[in-house]
């Protein structure tokens, strides 16, 4: 069970914690392993040259 963690915030709660617009992928879980896909916040350029 080494390296496992929990991500239990809802899809509405998670973005508001980081002043983000939305999350991408994954579902809330109490038992996430290092090899599982997880929800993530993706930065979006608001000005300047994009990626």
From TrEMBL:
Classification via InterPro entries: SRAP-like
Protein name: Abasic site processing protein
Source species of the chain: Rhodococcus wratislaviensis NBRC 100605
